């Protein structure tokens, strides 16, 4: 465990400070650089940006990395970090008494409450007790596929009685969180990555495109005024191939899919996005990509649309001026209103 961590830190260091810069001329004598990090949100983060020098780009990418790392630690529900009160601490202590936390946690909780309301409770960060049962079964199943099992439905039903987000009392004056239900647990996995990405790039003033495990966001168009082109992963095809591409100036593209994280029980794949009604993996879609200006919203909405039919999804998109691409279980693609305007032909 310790060894793995060291390796990741080392890799991050090498990649950022010595390698991976790619130079191409662009409109305003700026050059194109890139960096990759392996230390954030348990996934690969890569970014491409235009700067006057490698030094300038390295300062910006390091700033983003450091900020994302702060968010990563604060929003982690599985690990503790010295000197930090994070989501794991909240889960362990907030039913005893209000827990004082960093305002970055308060802001995420308030945002998540909005998403809960707007998505008709489809995206609910208070599903933690239910999601933990799935998490344990998935981890065990991945470790030893021959004895993979499904979580017990009685346990899931019992856990689902403790998922009312209104019982998470957030005091944004005193920066405290309190659970009015002692069995309730938070899991911010559906929103945290996109939300942290948004916060980390909000004050970046160079043209930059960042992908945090496929959650993509950009600060503005490229220096020559042209848009970034972002591929939406082909769910059926080989790795790295794209069926659809979209154009992005300032905005975010986030995909939720059943092929990203799953395990297999009796030849059936069970993925990680859980329908709050059935307490089972959502069976509406193979994947849904959402494009909106804000990366936190894109993350929340992509999980939400993954767990609802197209009509309800379109209504939600209309509210937020978003567009989406749905991939059905048989691979058929459906475009939302306005998708063609952002599609790259
Ligand atoms: P990814 O993490 O692959 O980017 P999502 O953004 O869709 O995908 O988030 C999935 C994660 O969100 C799960 O791993 C789990 O932690 C959490 N989650 C699963 N189902 C729900 C749900 N209905 N509401 C809130 N969070 C969920
Ligand atoms: Mg999401």
Protein architecture, described:
- By secondary structure, the chain is an alpha+beta fold.
- It is built from ten helices and 15 strands.
- Helix 2 packs antiparallel against helix 7.
- Strands 1-2-6-7-10-13-14-15 form an eight-stranded antiparallel beta sheet.
- Helix content is 36%, strand content 23%.
- Bound molecules: adenosine-5'-diphosphate and magnesium ion.
- Magnesium ion binds next to helix 8.
Fold blueprint:
Elements: H1 2-18, E1 31-40, E2 43-51, H2 54-75, H3 87-93, E3 99-100, H4 103-118, H5 128-143, H6 153-160, E4 168-171, E5 176-179, H7 192-201, E6 208-212, E7 215-218, E8 228-233, E9 242-248, E10 251-257, E11 262-265, E12 268-271, E13 287-292, H8 295-306, H9 310-320, E14 323-327, E15 333-335, H10 339-342
Antiparallel strand pairs: 1-2, 2-6, 3-5, 4-5, 6-7, 7-10, 8-9, 10-13, 11-12, 13-14, 14-15
Helix pairs in contact: 2-7, 7-8, 8-9
The structure holds adenosine-5'-diphosphate (ADP) and magnesium ion.
Magnesium ion binds at residues 190-191, 256, 299-300, 302-303.
